[in-house]
Amino acid sequence: MPGTSFVLAQEQWFEVPLSDRIASYDIEVKLDTELHRLTATQTIYWQNPSDDTIRTIPFHLYLNAFKNTESTFYRESLGSGRFPDLENTTEADWGWINIDKIKIGDGEDLSRQLRYIHPDDDNTEDKTVIELALLQPILPRAKAVLNLTWTAKIPKIKIRTGYSKDFYLQAQWFPKIGVYESAGMRFAKTGQWNCHQYHPTTEYYADFGNYNVSINAPDAFIVGASGTRTKVEKQSDQTSTHHFYGEDIIDFTWTASPNFEVVKEEYLGIQLELLINSEYSCCTDRYLESAKYAIDYLGERLMPYPFPKLTIVVPPLHGINAGAMEYPTLVTAPGMYGFPDWLRSPEYFVIHEFVHQYFMMMVATNEFEEAWMDEGFTSYWKSRILDDAYGVKNSVIDLRWVRMGAMEFFRSRYVGMDNIHLAESTRAGWEYPNGSPRALFYSKPATWLKTLEGIVGLETMDEIMKTYFNRWKFKHPCRYDFIDVVNEVVVEKHGDEFGENMNWFFDFVLYGTGACDYSVGSIQHLETAMATIGIWEDSLIIKNQNPQKKYQAKVVLERLEEIQLPVDILVCFVDGTKVWERWDGKARTHGLTYDTDVRIDYVEIDPLQKIYMDINILNNSKRTEPNTRSIWAYVSSWGMRIQQVFQGVSFFI
Ligand SMILES: [Zn+2]
Predict the structure, then answer these.
(1) With a threshold of 0.85, does the pTM exceed it?
(2) What single string gives the DSSP state of each residue in 277-338?
(3) Cα(473) to centroid of ligand 1, in Å?
(4) What residues are neighbours of ligand 1 (ion), with CB under 5 Å?
(5) Of 26, 502, 610, 618, which residue is 20 to 30 A from 198 by alpha carbon distance?
């Protein structure tokens, strides 16, 4: 019935705000499914968080990355396959966004005060950041209301956002204000805007706020979005307007398709909504059950998921490039018809993107500049959850002869890098040589976080993570803030066991480009017991012809690469005696000597696999002679069965 509205939920989420709500948005957008266009009015409520007077405001116009081949996004994407078949493109393939009008409050239109800026490169053709020169400055701590009207052409999905046939995934779709960093925030020495151009290797950075978004789409379309649906209004022109609301979120993403099946469930007070095409409905339970497992796991260890909604979107196969991405209270997870049970891809993606609800949507680091703080933490926790749920050895692939766990998978990606010494992990996303820095954002930090867990112990690691998360949620930390928490918690729990602080660890793994490789160099035995023989009373006398053999056993351990970490060593003698040793791992070589009645059977470095980032575990053990026990020790060492097989496996993103 035209004009009828259905109130579906109360708007307010939290009695006490979780964040500072610096940038809030009201957006009314109309989707034209014939022309693939958006027309919108938008109000931004922005609060100057600083003691500075603000004279300019930059905005992200992400959709302009898809405007033409001269955008920085396009130029840096060359060879990535994101823009295939250039000769056959039509206007329908490309996308853009244009601010038609912009006002402060009810003031005059300031659109002539807009100009494109290029803070990251000298590409004057890039139109992904636009700056407004204010006629009246915004005073310290003052609030400003900006009213915009804008138009956008939706691109065909190349990555994350766009349309494919009648499926729409609208991410990075509206003008988004940059983040003003006051002096002392992150790396800012003086107050400054942080608003980078759109690069293919970077994601996003935004302030928290509340979102009131109404989306008008043809009646046939089922609409899902960040936030909770508060109202649906049927209009007289065979369209409906869907109202959504969210608090303390950094972004807003929505999807529309006439082909979604909607599966709803409530879990621990959270509305779970799965939007899935019917060809994938066989996997419905797998998406929902894995989400619930992750909700429980992080709820126990970090904080219960605070938002009232989680929407999981499974794009159709033709729109799969919109899959595997995280947005506030909404994730996308690629589907495939008849996913076999042994390939835990639905679980892998749902859990990964759900972890981002914590490490992007709440901790909200700057993904342009410190991508590892988002993807690295997410990869570490995702692996813990998957391995806990489905098994350390088989959480990703679970065939009889081919098995792989999630943490193993990340380690294999890290040690399988073409150049493991490529660069430190602290560069901005577009500053890496030789293309993709993915391993430096995902698998390397996941692997050294697992190594840190091995060194300080799981209990301490959980304390570090819980402290870091709860201290910095909704506050945009940088790497210094995490390192400070590590130093604080480790010293509190272990005193000076690992030194004055853990800065040395980060010098190696985060700021350094070295690798870690310990090796058993050699095991040697010198026979020391001999017959008692010599001259006694002018005669040669052999006092005991068959003395018991004795040995001096010498073991040489080697550090083959740059990184120095404390390692445990297991020395096992042929009579079954086991001796545990500890080496600070600093020198290039380290010797162990035993005066013993029996020979050493085998020596193994790091048998408990604490130093997860050791790049070659085949050289971690050595046996004196082949015998069944030492062969078993060799074979049973965790990764030796599989490491080489899977190094470089790269069929997940
Ligand atoms: Zn991710």
Answers:
(1) yes
(2) EGGGGGGHHHHHHHHHHHHHHHHHHT----SSEEEEEE--GGGGGG-SEEETTEEE----TT
(3) 18
(4) 375, 378
(5) 26
